[in-house]
Each structure stands twice: as C-alpha cells, then as structure tokens.
Prior knowledge:
71% of the residues lie in helices and 0% in strands.
Amino acid sequence: MTRTKPGKVTQLLDFFFDEVHSLFVHLGLRKHGGTNSASDFYVLFLTLTALLSIVPLVCFYTLSLDPHVVHWLGTEPQYVNLAVPVLLGSLAASMPFLKHLHPSRETVRVAVLILFLGASAAMIVSAVRLLHSSRAVSNQLVFHCGQGGSVSALLESEWRVLDQFHRTCVESVGNQSLHVQNCPGFVGLLTVPGRAETVAYLQSAEESLRCAGFCHFWASPLFTSGQALAGKRCASELGAEVGHAGALAALPTAFSGLVLLVVGAGLAGYENL
Length: 273
C-alpha cells in the first residue's frame, strides 16, 4: 500500500521544525543525531508567548494604570493587555496536558484548532471592543464635550462653579495670582456631595496635562500658575490621551490574536501533530 504524500502544510512545518531542531543542536540544547521532539515545539511556543506578551505587559504597567485612562475607560484596557499573557500561558499549559491524555491524532488537531481559535477570537474581540469604546470616549470629549448627561457635562458644570467662585474670590481679595484652592471658603465649597472628588480630578487633569478649563478654550487656570498653554483645554487633552491609550492597548492584543489564528490554523492542518 502506497503511503499518502504529506500535504503542503505538513511539508512546510516539517521543514521548519527540522531547521529549528538543527539550530537547537547547534546551540547545544539538543544532542547531535537525536530526533525531533515535542519539546522543540513547546520551546518555540513559549518563546512566541514571551515575545507577544512584552508590549501588552509594558502597556499594562504604563498606560492601563494611568489615572486618566482608568477614569474614562475603567479597567477594560487592563483586561485587554493581560489577555495576551494569560491566554497564551493557558494554551502553553493545556498542550502537554492534552498529549498526556493520549488521544488520537485527529482529536488532537481538532482540540488544538478549537483552543487556538477560541483564544484568538477572545483577543481580537476584546481589542475591537476597546478600540470602539476608547474612540467613542475620545470623540465625546473632543467634539461633544459637555453635552447631554455625560461625565464631561458634570465636569464642565463643576468647573463653571469653580471658575465663578475663583473670579469672585480674586475680585474680593484683590490678588489676581491667587489659586482657587487658596481662596477663603474653598473647603466649604467642597461640602456638596460628590464635589470633592470631581474637583480633585479637575485639579489632577490641569496639573498633569498642563491644560486649563474643561470644555471651553482659552480659559484661565484655576489650580496652577502659568503651566497651561494658550487654548489648551483639558477635554481635548484627555480625549487625545484616551484615544491613544485605547489604540496602544488594543492593537498589540489584536495582532497577537491574528498570529495565534495563523499558528492554530497551521497546526490544525499539520498531519504529524
């Protein structure tokens, strides 16, 4: 009985794994003359996991934990960033367990396809959702600030209260450089429920982004002196930061999902798995 010729995917992957095994032998990781083993694939997959996880983990510790990103997008960017190392690590742990069960070759191929496609879909869907939500928040801040019952409307309303209070304070004290937090009666102004947190966020945005006002351009700074650039309103700065953070958090995860999709499809068509 003639042996069926391997498919192109199998031939290509056999050649690739042979080259990798030769490289491992050259590096002293395998004995010369030894046969290819499943451990070669696991080493490759763990290396791929590490490489694909670097950028999401960097984004997690830099962008996703940023207080402004958390304020407007919540913890969604954190989950999207952690999806890559968590899902890839789960796949790496599941494959030796799957082989330990000694299923048929066809069962292994189907299981690998399901696992890889499931993880890939989870990464891509979560990344697309984050891109959509971050773009929506960014557009609302930049183009529709203060409209409707949005969070920006509340911040703009509170900023107007502070601005009017500051103007009255400056006129009565006669000190144009006086910051609003140093005005007499400022502490009493914060007794309104929820206002202290809103004012603290407005102050944080003005100080960290070096902006002034919230929805309105060319506003005077309330909490700082000379740090705000002319016409640099806080809503626009926040919108840009949220949009960039969403894209930087989502795109590496989406890319990892696409890579996983290609790897899973290739392994599902590999006859020697």
